[in-house]
Design brief:
Layout: E1 4-7, E2 10-13, E3 18-24, E4 33-39, E5 46-51, E6 57-59, E7 67-72, E8 77-82, E9 91-98, E10 114-115, E11 119-124
Parallel strand pairs: 2-11
Antiparallel strand pairs: 1-3, 3-8, 4-5, 4-9, 5-6, 7-8, 9-10, 9-11
Length: 125
């Protein structure tokens, strides 16, 4: 079973930057597509970004051009670099792993098999 642990959340002013990290413990990490989702109070969990095993990426329109997802298979790490942060980016951010082998860039939360505990990102105006 894959264990995911996020870190790097915090409080930042609008226009600032944060980098989230997700550490994975599974032996087959390099085969997984990895994604970031976020959820604000009273809202549904929404897709943010995904990266597959060969580092193809896809982003939600709301973060495209501002956020960058990356992975380091040697370190079993996934990152989300967040620049030009906006108050509407405020949410609890989750790392997720997709075990499927097709390498699809899936955007639906139910497609993911493992989830981290999340980390809070708060952007002040």
């Amino acid at each position: 079973q894959e264990q995911l642990v996020e870190s790097g959340g915090g409080l930042v002013q609008a226009g600032g930057s944060l980098r989230l990290s997700c550490a994975a413990s599974g032996r087959t990490f390099s085969n997984y597509a990895m994604a970031w989702f976020r959820q604000a109070p009273g809202k549904e969990r929404e897709f943010v970004a995904v990266i597959n095993r060969i580092s193809n990426t896809y982003y939600a329109d709301s973060v495209k051009g501002r956020f960058t997802i990356s992975r380091d298979n040697f370190k079993n790490m996934v990152y989300l670099q967040m620049n030009s942060l906006k108050p509407e980016d405020t949410a609890f951010y989750y790392c997720a792993a997709d075990r499927s082998l097709g390498g699809a860039l899936r955007t639906v939360a139910t497609a993911y098999d493992y989830w981290g505990q999340g980390t809070q990102v708060t952007v002040s105006s």
